[in-house]
Amino acid sequence: MRVKLGDIFEIGSGGTPSKAHPEYYGGNIPWVKTGDLKNEYLYEAEDFITEEGLNNSSAKIYEENTVLIAMYGATIGATSILKMKACTNQACAAFRKNEQVIPEYLYYFLRSKKEKFAKDEKNIKRIEQKLKVDREKAKEIAKEMATYTDKEGINDVDTTLAIYQMQQEGWDLEDARYAASYNNVAFDGKNTNYMKEKDREDYKNSFKSKLMSRDGVKENDANVKANNLFRAMDRFNELKS
Prior knowledge:
5-stranded mixed sheet; 47% helix; 12% strand
């Protein structure tokens, strides 16, 4: 049975006291940043804040055996187990200790996902960059795009992003996915917009013949399907480039 980590753990994050108030810093409360998450166990932090800084920010105290993980940035996926009471900045996610799961098990589980976290972060940044959306919207889009990857040849962010854009333009999702898959497999990802007209016609005729002989599609319908496929592949390549 699959369960979400949020169903097992209370998960929080932290905050950064205003730098405009120097009195918020230099106290005796360890303030953990993602750069501190270097080893399995975390016994000390580089920076400290005061009680006033804690009370005037979203930072909060976490108990020993809380598992911390870097949520974004260059250190994404870095993980440590707190061995002291401490607070964190907002880039750290904190899994409060749980009697059902030993912290070391969670630590090694999260560490095993570091490569995936890094890839997901890269994809989110690519979406932000290409679609000019904020991070939260990019995360929503990335989640939807993850459902596109079950067809052969659909396995990278630019491919799934082009499919998403086609769908937003009104293309049928399955037509967009098929065009992406066919383009990446049959043409090895080459841009169909730059194909010579004779080559395009040869490929269209080959595709039509397969539809007619293999699937029993009538010639007129096969012709329409072939033209639609190339229209979709052309648009896919325009968006992907």
